[in-house]
Amino acid sequence: MTTNPVVPEMPDTLALQAQDAAHYLHPFTDHTQLHSKGSRMIVRGDGIYLWDSEGKKILDGMSGLWCVNVGYGRSSIAQAVHKQMDVLPFYNSFFNTSNVPAVQLAAKLAELAPPGFQHVFYTGSGSEANDTNVRMVRRYWDLMGYPDRHVIISRRNAYHGSTMAGASLGGMSGMHEQGGLPIPGIVHIGQPHYFDDGVGMTPEDFGLRAAGWLEKKILEIGADKVGAFIGEPIQGAGGVVIPPDTYWPEIRRICRKYDVLLIADEVITGFGRLGRWFGSELFGIEPDLITFAKGVTSGYVPLGGVLVSDRVAKVVMDGGEFTHGFTYSGHPVACAAALENIRIIEEEKLVERVAEDTGPYLRQRFASLAAHPLVGVAETCGFVAGLNLVRGKAARLHDQLRFDPALGVGMVCRGHMFNNGMIMRAVGERMIVAPPLVMGRAQIDEMVALIRFCLDRTLEDVE
Ligand code: PLP
Question: Is Transferase a UniProt keyword of this protein (predicted)?
Fold first, then answer.
């Protein structure tokens, strides 16, 4: 792999932190803490590693924010971006215009998408893509002659972005509390969380039961009012919630039965993360719309969009103008970055590697962490993994003793990771990783050793 050897000059950390605290309003950050601790300044990346302004090397177990699939420092993406900026840095796709990289990428995405997808609508982010879904679903049903079918069903603890529609589709109570969300026309059902909610059931039975909540909700609202159901194949920000195998086929069956459109939000699971180009293929989802972002450019520049199935595309296109779009829809520079990113994924066979080699190896090595006294469950799917910290282990999964959430044990563990050069995210007591797809076997060993070391430190703290 060709990476960029550029090593930047080290900035004055304290001065930067002071400016940061004075001027930079960060996303999802508690600013009362930022002022007392100061931000960590990340200055460089190469492969699966980052460096901060103090020169400390960090293993990035989260691929940035679930996005740097091809790893950091790819000179060829930088060159593709540079070339496109020289040739045409911007033009829009409104009013019958187009540009070369946007067209080439659309054709490439149609080739990579599951069968029955020939069209893409571009956005600048995953949130905008989910807003697009809301508008497109409503437009579709209007054109079909069912203007009442505007309700979209989502799930609690889902994450679908931060715009008004994205945050409403999401099921994060902390987000709904700020600003009176969800907006009208979006309702939620439970998530398929076996560890939390499957007490006394097999995973298979629980999967069917959780899918049944969708049918119940459709009947409660009236099928003639429901336009779509949206879900992440695996809930990422909610804590890597991997559904039982029975869940998605049953959701698909229910959507078909009531003619409800099915939206797979693949912002995290797209572009190889689960060992398939799209997670929908792994779970047999067969959606009508697919949201993507992040991995399409490996986060090098912002790009998102919706893959639109032939069923929906035909109606929307036959309907004339869809009065929707963004200045940066089909941005030539972002599309050029995506084309090079996808070329790398194909050339290095990253999807196949995750499916056949590194994914199974991560599963095997991660499973070994289940023997640790603090770990209740350790599970993976492709290149996402999660483990639950528990106070007491037990032979039966649901008999394990939980920590009082007020103790913040997950954050204690995350603190040890942070101090020991490892990025792992805490969602309550669930510790999660989603490493760059380029991570090899030796690096998986290194990551698992680091995690084990930090679990030992956490155990010392809670004992
Ligand atoms: N959908 C999912 C599943 C996500 O995980 C995210 C971001 O993490 C989004 C949508 C929103 O994407 P963005 O942050 O690009 O708006």
Answer: yes
CA pair distance 216, 251, nearest whole angstrom? 12
Q: Of 379, 354, 361, 375, nearest to 444 (Cα)?
A: 361
Per DSSP, the residues of 94-159 read -TT---HHHHHHHHHHHHHSPTTEEEEEEESSHHHHHHHHHHHHHHHHHHTT-TT--EEEEETT--
410: Cβ contacts below 8 Å, ≥ 6 apart: 389, 426, 427, 428, 429, 430, 431
Strand positions, DSSP E, 257-298: 261-265, 289-292
| C-alpha R_g of the chain | 22
Dihedrals φ, ψ of 196, to 5°? -85, -35
Q: Is the pTM of this model over 0.90?
A: yes
Q: What is the pLDDT of residue 11?
A: 81
For residues 426 and 238, is the Cβ–Cβ distance under 8 A?
no
Q: Measure 172 CA to ligand 1 centroid, in angstroms.
A: 13
Position 363: which residue type?
A: R
Q: Which residues pair with 423 in a beta bridge?
A: 60
Segment 140-171, tens digit of pLDDT = 999 999 999 999 999 999 999 999 999 999 99
Q: Give the residues of the chain that fall short of pLDDT 70.
A: 1-7
- In terms of Cβ atoms closer than 10 Å to its own Cβ (0-12, 13-18, 19+), residue 287 is buried
What's residue 5's pLDDT?
A: 56
Going by alpha carbons, the residue nearest to atom 13 of ligand 1 is 126
Q: Phi-psi region for residue 259, left (φ > 0), alpha (ψ -120 to 50) or beta?
A: left
Q: What is the DSSP letter of 296?
A: G
- Distance from residue 154's CA to the centre of ligand 1 (Å): 15
Q: CA 396, 401, 403, 405 torsion: positive or negative?
A: positive
Give the per-residue pLDDT at 34. Answer: 74
Among 133, 162, 268, residue to substitute to test ligand 1 (most atoms within 8 Å of Cβ): 268
